């Protein structure tokens, strides 16, 4: 296979994978509040998927699927863009926002237009949001800044090392919940919408091409289960999804009701257009300005 992934049958012979789970496919899940509408019905057993589940942050899922350690997952849009030869979008499922994303936030000690030459801390959890910030600042606001990926800690914003910090997912919600503070907060989904008029697609559910070729029926079944879970999570279990979110980061019910309605899990034509524009901007940037954190 020219150095590519081993077929699952070969892996089974070497490592007796059957002893661990009954299906040949492994499913990754983003361990963030924004994916609760899809994850929670599965977690509760309301939707049963016969597969091994791996929960982690987007960056880790990106790594695992490229190493063939998982087969299906919601991954960062940037990782999909850079690996279209290996990955196929499935089920028209994505994580996007047509305006505020609410959990992709730049917390700044200065107005955004004053960040020229500033040092900005980036999230280690996702490549897409880091690249999106670079595009927004450089291409739209004509701001050159320096960037460093910094592990999240609750005192990071108090550090004098950075003029601004980008937080995503649950970390962004946690920092947002601490308001009011003397900080400027910018929603990257809103900024993208303002400058492009299109939704921002942060992640896409994909399958490895090899897995799709070898296990098409199993992939089809998992896609159907994911869609079913999404409908249940946004439907009859929605109140429980909000309560679960509040267990993770305590913000009002009203906030989470708006939050989940700001997000879209449908990979619509508009979302695909937005992703195509994002890809164009990624290709236009000097690749040495910011190494992606896959």
Q: Give the CATH class of the largest domain.
A: Alpha Beta
Share in β-strands: 15-25%
- Please give the share of residues in helix: 40-55%
Mean pLDDT: 88
Classification by helices and strands: alpha/beta
CATH superfamily of the largest domain: Periplasmic binding protein-like II
Label the overall shape.
globular
- The biggest beta sheet, please? 5 strands, mixed
- Ranges where pLDDT stays below 50 over 5 or more residues in a row are 6-21, 288-294
**Reading side by side through the largest sheet, how are the strands ordered?**
7-6-8-5-9
Q: Tally the helices.
A: 12
User: What's the CATH architecture of the largest domain?
Assistant: 3-Layer(aba) Sandwich
The CATH topology of the largest domain: D-Maltodextrin-Binding Protein, domain 2
Tally of individual domains: 2
**What string, H for helix and E for strand, traces the elements in order?**
HEHEHEHEEEHEEHEHEHHHHEH
As a whole number of angstroms, the C-alpha radius of gyration is: 19 Å
How would you characterize this protein structure?
With 294 residues, the protein is of the alpha/beta class. The chain folds into two domains: 8-96 and 200-282, D-Maltodextrin-Binding Protein, domain 2, CATH 3.40.190.10; 104-198, Periplasmic binding protein-like II (D-Maltodextrin-Binding Protein, domain 2), CATH 3.40.190.10. The chain is 42% helix and 21% strand. It is built from twelve helices and eleven strands. The strands form three sheets. The chain has a five-stranded mixed β-sheet with strand order 7-6-8-5-9. The chain has a four-stranded antiparallel β-sheet with strand order 3-10-4-11. Helix 2 packs across helix 9 (216-233). The longest helix has 18 residues, at 216-233.
């Amino acid at each position: 296979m020219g150095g590519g992934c081993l077929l699952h049958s070969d892996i089974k012979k070497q490592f007796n994978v059957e002893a661990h789970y009954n299906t040949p496919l492994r499913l990754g899940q983003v361990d963030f509040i924004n994916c609760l509408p899809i994850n929670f019905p599965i977690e509760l057993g309301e939707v049963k998927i016969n597969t091994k589940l791996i929960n982690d942050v987007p960056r880790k899922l990106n790594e695992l699927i490229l190493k063939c350690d998982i087969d299906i997952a919601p991954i960062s849009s940037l990782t999909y863009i850079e690996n279209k030869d290996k990955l196929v979008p499935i089920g028209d499922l994505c994580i996007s926002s047509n305006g505020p994303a609410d959990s992709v936030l730049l917390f700044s000690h200065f107005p955004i237009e004053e960040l020229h030459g500033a040092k900005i801390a980036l999230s280690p959890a996702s490549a897409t949001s880091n690249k999106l910030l670079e595009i927004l600042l450089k291409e739209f606001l004509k701001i050159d800044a320096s960037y460093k990926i910094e592990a999240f800690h609750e005192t990071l914003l108090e550090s004098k090392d950075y003029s601004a910090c980008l937080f995503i997912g649950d970390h962004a919600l946690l920092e947002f919940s601490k308001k009011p503070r003397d900080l400027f907060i910018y929603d990257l989904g809103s900024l993208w919408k303002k400058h492009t008029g299109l939704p921002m697609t942060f992640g896409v559910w994909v399958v490895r091409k090899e897995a799709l070729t070898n296990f098409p029926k199993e992939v089809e079944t998992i896609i159907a289960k994911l869609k079913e879970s999404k409908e249940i999570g946004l439907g009859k279990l929605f109140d429980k999804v909000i309560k679960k979110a509040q267990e993770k980061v305590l913000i009002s019910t009203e906030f989470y009701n708006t939050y989940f309605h700001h997000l879209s899990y449908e990979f619509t034509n508009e979302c695909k257009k937005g992703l195509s524009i994002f890809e164009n901007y990624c290709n236009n940037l000097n690749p040495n300005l910011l190494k992606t954190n896959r």
